[in-house]
Amino acid sequence: MILNISKIMKIPDATMKLSFEENINFIESKAEKIKLVSPIKFKGELISDGKMLYLNGDVNTVLELHCDRCTKPVPTSLSIRIEEKFGSYENDEEEIHIISGNEIDLTPILINAILLNIPMKVVCSEECKGICPQCGKNLNEDTCDCKEEVVDSRFAVLRTLFDSSK
Ligand SMILES: [Zn+2]
Ligand SMILES: [Zn+2]
After folding, report:
1. In a domain, 35, yes or no
2. What distance in angstroms lies between residue 133's CA and the mean position of ligand 2's atoms?
3. Is residue 123 part of a domain?
């Protein structure tokens, strides 16, 4: 979303109310491409103090993440509060987005806020049994005998040791 800020830029206390949606299908993090299953919604305001602009508001969207145990897609809602500053020159003490001309582009700021707030791990359900590390079966849909075999073979080893010590 590109905003023309010429009407509020130089006017102290001028406020621009913002409420918009952006349709973006994917965002890219370093590791992966993440699907968005709902538009990015933003509601907030941009306030001028005559020199700087202050953006605050809430970013909402729904990402399609994947279950950490079984890899099934998990729609994950995010709601993020953002506060950003815009100015015409950099400042070492705080992060300021540089304004060039009469426009600022909010899209990269919203995407960055989402990328910084992606949960590390999601699960499709707390009861998700995951995938068998041995045969690869999804244990929510199917059962396998792998676990028992592991336990059995351990018992077998113990039994052999026990028997040989007699
Ligand atoms: Zn799962
Ligand atoms: Zn298995």
Report:
1. yes
2. 7
3. no
